[in-house]
Amino acid sequence: MKNKLVVATSTLVAGAIAIALILRPTRSISPLPELGTPEHIPPAARAVIRSRMQRHGEQLGNLVSRVVVLDYDGAARTAGEIYDEPTLARPLTGDELNAVLPERFFVLQDELRGEARRLVAAAARRDSAQLAQEFSVLTKTCISCHDLYLHGTADSASGTSPGRQPPIE
Ligand code: HEC
Question: What atom in ligand 1 is closest to the CA of residue 82?
Answer without folding.
Answer: 38
